[in-house]
Design brief:
The protein is an alpha/beta fold. The chain has 14 helices and ten strands. A hairpin with a 5-residue loop joins strand 7 and strand 8. The model is unreliable at 426-463 (pLDDT under 50). Bound molecules: zinc ion. Zinc ion binds at residues 181, 184, 188, 192, 194, 196.
Amino acid sequence: MEQHLAHRLMDQLARRGGLHRVPPAEVIAPSGDSTLFVSAGIQPWREWALSGRPERAGRVGLQWCVRTNRLEAAGAGGIQTAFAMVSDVRRGRIERIRYFEELLTAFQAIGLDPRRLGFLTARDSAGRPLDDATHRALTRLGIPADRLATRPHRMSAPFPGGPFGPNVFVLVDHGSAQVPHRGCTPGCTPDCTCGRWFHFWNCEFLDLQLDGAGRHEPADRPLVDSAGGSERLACAVLGRPDAYTLPALASVHAHVTTMARGDTAGTDTAALLRRVTDHARTAALLLGTGVVPGGKRHGHVLRRILRRAFVAAELLGAAPHRMVGLVALAAAAHRGWPGFPPVPDHRLAMVGAESEAFAALLANGRRAYRDLTHGAAGLTAETVFRLKAERGIPLEIVLEWCRRDGRSVELPDITEQMALEQRTSRVGYAPRPGSPVPAARRPAASPAVPAAGPSDSSPRSQS
Ligand SMILES: [Zn+2]
């Protein structure tokens, strides 16, 4: 369903804008890119986008992307580590009104009534709108003033040194009937964070460049980059605020739910279920692409994702090796998606090996925990952090063990806790030579996403 809607939109955009359909590139970013994985649909098209003369024909395509810059937030809200992004990129300067007319007509053709849409454009620090051209164009197309709002300004610049410009967020009104929002008014505007407005699409008008003195001037090679995640698009069309209810993710999520043990009172079960679901899919995508869990670069990202999934599974009361079946299920749920290769059995076996290493780490940590807590009714913060620093046991697992054993934990407040964590992290935990388990304190090698990330498909914080 998600894929079907994405293809229908791409057909519409291709036809109306005279765009070429381009097949997906591999999710591993070309060497030399600032990210390890492709993090936006336009990224593999850099050469095409920045070279050559402006032309009428643009490109449209679906691209699997991986973003791990907000790994800790994955599972909460709409943050996902892998998503399929639909991108429409055009070279040259395009009149805003013509552009939005095409876009809104394409949205309407897949079931998104323009009357349900809202728009957020950039404003400066004094609160003045910075993108008058978009406001004027949308007003002329009949978008009422109460569906046009502004947000703090941040220029989009997908390519360092390339053209940059304002970003327009497109949102759909999920209405008060679907999303209860306490304390809000029925007539709230798209800048409201009550949960009524669902951000699913971005339009970046990259028509500026810097002159020799650092001032803005019209770009020699302007671009329009318009994009959104296919699941967010489906959520917008179907009036659902939650991608985990869409068929592909829902099938994995349902299975994770059956794995969870009843006794998860001390945990945020919903976020853990989503974390496992999301990470199973991302692991399947990476394994299918040929990434192997390891200690460096792409392999390290995959190992971190698997490890976070094992931790979440443990907190849910499920054995880590259940991830093998979940990764296989996630791969099967995305069969036929362009750019999502199947996972061969020998790579699934690698998930099994990683899960065994993690189980061994937990067993060792559990013994240390028993020794350290012998005869004690509670744990000091120092002990908790020693288990983390010296044994690699994540804090959330130590806390869960204490909860299950009815032990109290003297945890200092959050600032003291962070200081303590930093102190213990300098203890210099080193893995045993040949240990297949990643060191808990090894610096994360997550790929950096440019500060002005292109076509952010993630939602604004809605809570
Ligand atoms: Zn509101």
